[in-house]
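> example.struct
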């Protein structure tokens, strides 16, 4: 027996629709929340990186200003000039005193060496015996100092003597009447202060790195050591400049927060900013994998919570469906029992009636035949059940003996079915005819 099939189908459809809607809401909610956390993480990390980059950039600018100020002061200071003038005149007796005076200036690795040159770039004096050789560029810089009477700064060149990167400042030594007598060279080793400043990071980091770069034609030069390259003393590292790389941004003159790839081809979050009064670019970067490392933990947590909620939802819906099915099953059993009792009562009434009673299903096949009907038709109920009504119940006209339409069929084809009542001759199983009065009605 089917119990309210349309209602049951509707319930299943509504239950499925509700479960899918809630699933989509949970998935969409977790996705939106994760994107919010990702955006918040990006903003916080970008802000922190900008602070770090700004601090380092200010330190570099301040470092440059301090060196220029010191070079200007020491090249015009009376305590040094009283030894420099005699040396330029050929008096070597003051070398020891000048070396002692300049050694104080070189303390704390402020300068690697201080050298006195003539206006033609010939060596006069060096605090340390070992110093970078005078190359063509140095000679040209000395000539520039002679002409302009200003300080010249040479940045990040490869020393022919050491094979390492060096910087120097050239300052004119002038008489009171502004005639240039010689040039003081203040040599610096970037590894003594410059590079440690770049590599220092205010907080623990696995991939954080600060680089100093500059444009050089159609490529860029790395002015500082690379964290993941062995040859860190090399001056220029031409980058395979491609769109989406940090170097590409520098060639385009871009600055600020940038998401792209670095010299390793790794995705990074970088802060790009020019250094005032130089052609340098400071790049402060961190691998995005490290930046979002904490976010991955949040993502795992969100996924676990979402999975738990979905599991709870589907288990609850399955339990609800099971409870409903059990309730419907109990109702069905109760109705079947009631129907069975009703059928038993109907059968008892049917079989106790003195008139012949025949019942069929909606297809016209025999269902019941009481004992009076068995005697009238000549058929036993057990052999007649399931046979078409025409086989059991055949009528002919009592006057013409012509076949009569079967009243059961008339009722089954009528819409709505009508009651049939008249007299006729019944043809028994053995072919005999007996007059009957029949009443046929739908149940």
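> example.seq
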């Amino acid at each position: 027996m089917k119990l309210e099939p349309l209602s049951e189908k509707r319930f299943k459809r509504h239950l499925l629709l509700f479960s899918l809607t809630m699933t989509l809401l949970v998935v969409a909610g977790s996705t939106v929340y994760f994107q919010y956390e990702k955006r918040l993480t990006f903003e916080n990390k970008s802000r922190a990186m900008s602070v770090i980059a700004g601090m380092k950039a200010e330190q570099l600018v301040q470092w440059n200003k301090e060196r220029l100020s010191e070079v200007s002061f020491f090249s015009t200071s009376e305590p040094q000039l009283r030894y420099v003038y005699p040396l330029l005149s050929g008096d070597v007796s003051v070398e020891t005193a000048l070396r002692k005076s300049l050694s104080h200036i070189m303390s704390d690795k402020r300068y690697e060496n201080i050298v006195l040159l003539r206006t033609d770039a010939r060596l006069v004096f060096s605090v340390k015996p070992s110093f970078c050789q005078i190359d063509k560029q140095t000679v040209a810089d000395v000539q520039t100092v002679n002409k302009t009477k200003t300080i010249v700064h040479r940045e990040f060149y490869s020393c022919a003597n050491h094979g390492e990167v060096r910087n120097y400042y050239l300052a004119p030594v002038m008489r009171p009447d502004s005639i240039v007598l010689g040039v003081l060279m203040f040599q610096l080793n970037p590894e003594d202060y410059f590079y440690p400043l770049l590599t220092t990071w205010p907080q623990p980091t696995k991939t954080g790195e600060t680089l100093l770069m500059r444009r050089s034609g159609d490529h860029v030069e790395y002015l500082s050591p690379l964290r993941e390259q062995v040859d860190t003393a090399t001056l220029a590292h031409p980058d395979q400049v491609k769109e989406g790389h940090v170097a590409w941004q520098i060639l385009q003159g871009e600055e600020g927060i940038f998401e792209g790839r670095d010299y390793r081809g790794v995705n990074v979050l970088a802060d790009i900013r020019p250094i005032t009064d130089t052609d340098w670019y400071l790049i402060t970067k961190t691998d995005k994998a490290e930046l979002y490392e904490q976010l991955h933990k949040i993502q795992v947590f969100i996924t676990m919570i979402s999975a738990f909620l979905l599991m709870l939802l589907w288990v609850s819906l399955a339990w609800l469906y099971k409870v409903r099915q059990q309730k419907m099953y109990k109702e069905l059993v109760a109705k079947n029992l009631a129907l069975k009792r009703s059928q038993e009562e109907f059968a008892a009434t049917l079989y106790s009636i003195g008139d012949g009673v025949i019942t069929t299903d909606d297809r016209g096949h025999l269902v019941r035949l009481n004992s009076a009907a068995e005697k009238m038709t000549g058929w036993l109920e057990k052999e007649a059940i399931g046979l078409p009504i025409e086989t059991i119940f055949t009528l002919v006209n009592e006057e013409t003996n012509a076949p009569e339409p079967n009243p059961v069929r008339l009722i089954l084809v009528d819409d709505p079915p009508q009651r049939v009542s008249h007299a006729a001759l019944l043809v028994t199983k053995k072919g005999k005819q007996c007059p009957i009065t029949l009443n046929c009605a739908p149940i």
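> remarks
Residues 201-291 form a domain with the Beta-Lactamase fold (CATH 3.30.450).
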